[in-house]
Structures are given as structure tokens and as C-alpha cells.
Amino acid sequence: MSTGEFTRWLHERARAHRFQVDRIPFAHLDGWAFDPATGNLGHRSGRFFTVEGLHVTVGTEPSAQWQQPIIVQPEVGILGILAKEFDGVLHFLMQAKMEPGNPGLIQLSPTVQATRSNYTKVHQGADVRYIEFFTDRSRGRVLVDVLQSEHGAWFSLKSNRNMIVEVAEEVPVGDDFCWLTLGQIGELLRRDNTVNMDARTVLACAPAAFVEPEAMHSDTDLLSWFTSERARQDVRVERIPLARVEGWRRAEESIDHAQGRYFRVMAVSVQAGSREVTSWTQPLFEPRGRGVVGFVVRRFHGVPHILVSARVEAGFRDTIELGPTVQFTPENYAHLPAAGRPPFQDLTTDIAPHRLRYDVLHSEEGGRFFDAVSRYLIVEADESQAPQQPPTGFLWVTPGQLNSLVRHGHYLNVQGRTLLSAINTGAAVL
């Protein structure tokens, strides 16, 4: 399939099924209810996920603590892509998948994108296609298999199994599936809201060859810095009943922050002809603004380097993960003085065209988040903008070093993996 044919095919798949998503009051949720004792929002099966409360304290300053709703989903899902050679070129089996929170509803997703509740059919729906290639190791050659975190600001301790499995056998291709090369996927990653988050995180974990004769920091120094950053952070996280969360207000149709910031919890009714279950209701988190996520890059000794941050997010298993140079929602900081805003944020506004290496809108996971869109950027800087000796909590690393780290779990956060997927696939050239 050519990339031009893919565009027509994706539109055809969108027209082939009935899709509809409507906001509803919480009282119209089917199978979901607020617990009368805790206020937690959960499903009657006890599976899928719950919306609970979280109390977070960072350090000892009174201002460095907050409470918020959080998604608790302890089960590990599978995000898996099948790979197969055609005429000596590796292709990847991708899916046109509807998620209720996606802008435009349908985006390009992995071959399999399923929670344990989905592929064990708690919903009593149809089988998840191709799941056997990722649960039966004898069906193919594993290229990637690693546990990675999801959004640490909205999920509590959530991990997914990111997999790529190469097969030799013939694989029947369903109507909503197609084979694409890595280069084609890279081209699609230059398009707004086309390749979904789950595909991006898997592609970030794919082995890639980088020519890097010299890095500013050795791998050992990088790991030592990362370990010391984890050790110096004093982060305490306590799950609390949703009814006890301070600074948030529950109404008939949403749970909102008292100042209208951050995100809201809302509910939707979904019709989706292409899914294992064709209709359902569920809660979703809806951000209150568009995010900005960016890597700042420079060359040292002729080798591209990326400025990463040691990022604290309440839902991480190990306190911090490496994150982009900049990751924030401007509306959440508008009330603060300049000193309270994220470092390097000015590099992601008013960008000179010659410094811009990547600029695309990507949405986050549409099965849990509604219209959660961020502007993803890769921006070249100079010494005056991003010094060789960066502030505490930042370090220059090479793309190859990041690619090595993501073969292990919980080193690079999901936003960083989106940007790395653009580099791995050639969508961004540093």
C-alpha cells in the first residue's frame, strides 16, 4: 500500500462503521457507579479501571503538595505490532482503530491494543484479533518486549507490555488492518493526530542504529546521574478516597478543579461498529488545555544530543523517569510568575523556522483521555539558549543512548517516547 493509498483507505475505514461519541451525565453510565463509602468511580465487574483520589507530597515545602483524581488500572495491557518481511523489507501490521477520546475518532494503532480485561473478554465481546501472536511465544520471533509506563500524571502505577513480534507465516489481513513500512509510518508521524499514542510508544522501543562516535556522557555516567536523581527526590504518594479529594468539585456531568485548571473527569456514551463490543459507556479524563512537549537539541563534537529532564510524576513506579526538555500545559501556569514556569519553555514559543526540526499535533491515549492533544516539537538551540552545562535535573544524551534505555522499562516517559518514535522512524531528522 502506498502512502497515498493509505490516506484513502483510512477514510474508507472511518466510513465503513458507525461511530458516535456523546457526553452524558454520570447517572447515565451503564455498569459504572460511585461507591457510596469512598466516592470512587468503578465498574460493577471490578475490572477495567477505577477513578480514585491521590495525595502527593514532593519535598518538605507546604506548597509542594496537591490532591487530584487518578486512574487506577493495575492490570498490564498488551501493545503489540506484528512484523513481516516482504521482498526483503520489514513491514508492520497496523490497525485503523477507533477510540472515543481520539480527535477524529480513528487513528493508526498497533496490531493489538488491549487491556487484560479486553483480551480475556470481561466485556463478553468478540475475540481480540492477532492476540495469540503476543501470548504464544512459539508463533514468532520477539524483537521487542518491555514494560513501559503510561501517563504518570493521570495513571497510578500503570504499565503496558510493548511488543514487536516478527512472523514468517502468512497472516490473514483483516479489513481494518494494513501492512506499512517503517518509512511510511515515519511519514504518517508528520501528520497531525494520525498515529496513536500506543503505536508511537511501541515504535520508540524498536531497535535503531545511530552513528554516534562520541557522546558527552558515557552510558555509565548517564545511569549514575539518573540513579542520583531518583535518590534525591522525596516524593510521597497516598491513594485516598475520591470523595476526600480537596480542591475538586463533583457535579452531574463532571468532576472539575476548583479553579478550572488541569483536567476534568467526564463520561461518554459510545457507538463503535468496528470494536469487540459495539456500544458502551465509560468515564474519560479531559485536559483543560493543549499541551506543549518538546526536545531541545544541540550538536556536540558533530553528534546530535537531546536535553532530557528528570521528571517527577505522581503515578510513576520509581519516582522519576526521563522526560522531554519541556512538557507542560500553558493554561496551568498562566497565573504564576515567570520564576514558577517550566525551564526552557520560551524555546517552544516564537520559534524561528530554521530551528524547528519537528512540529506535529499528537493526541494521547484515546481510550482514557478525551481530546488530549499536545504540540510535539523538536527545536535546535545554541549555547545562549541551552548551555552545555544545563541546570540541575537536566542532562544531554544522544538518541542512541535513549534508544538503548527504552529497551528496559521505566526509563523514558510516554511523551519522550513519542518524540523518540519520530526520530527512530525518520519523521524527525536531527
TrEMBL record:
Lineage: Bacteria, Bacillati, Actinomycetota, Actinomycetes, Kitasatosporales
Top-level taxon of the source organism: Bacteria
Domain dTDP-4-dehydro-6-deoxy-alpha-D-glucopyranose 2,3-dehydratase: 4-205, 220-422
InterPro entries, alphabetized: EvaA-like, EvaA-like_sf
Designated name of the protein: NDP-hexose 2,3-dehydratase family protein
